[in-house]
Amino acid sequence: MPRILCVTAHPDDEAAAFGGSLRLYHERGAEIYVVCLTAGQAGSHRGLAKTDHELAAIRRKEFAASCEILGIDRGVVLDYADGQLHRVDLYKVVGDLIQHIREFRPDVMLTFGPEGGVTGHTDHSMASVFATMAYQWAGRENRYADQLLDGVTAHRTRKLYYATGNFVLAGRPPVSPPPITTVIEIGDFVKTKIAAFETHTTQAPVFPLVRDTILSSGPEEYFHLAATTEPGSAARETDLFAGLSAKD
Ligand SMILES: [Zn+2]
Asked: Which whole number is the average pLDDT over 7-27?
């Protein structure tokens, strides 16, 4: 069974940025794992939560409900500081992600681009940096060698993709998105993606904006092939597993 690991920053990113593709590849039989680095406790939309701790607990439940709708096999929310990922210890976060990679052993990884997606959120940018280094280092036995015990071995993931888009949000500080290499037709899963986003009820004030943004970009999600184990020119792709099956 092919495996996809998706690294996000906040509960709701799994739906808004990757939801259609995650559900599509679930339907195609892939095993899907999402690692979310923060519980979103610094969010400006807080529902009925009175404290950061309460908001984190609510958002963890919302994330679990969204994972259910998207067909995500395993979803974990780590405990890094929301809004502060640019200030956390890179060596530690990357090591955590490498441990997940070496245990789950994905074929393909998904994350944001270093621009931080259409919102340019610093946490999205840092998720990209951490996931990229973890992708590159998980396959090297001389990196985080202390993890290589009890049957855990180094693992090279075949491809790394950044979510990207064919538009920028008007009225926002500029972002420079990675070029599109890969177009995934998500069809009706655009509705599933919106439904998954709307399980994040603490984020209700942004539902209309997110729904309009998702619907205006149509039944497609866009990715940038950022790294691959097969050196060469980037080709236009319509499948995250393109070029992999022949070797598996
Ligand atoms: Zn986010």
From this structure: 98
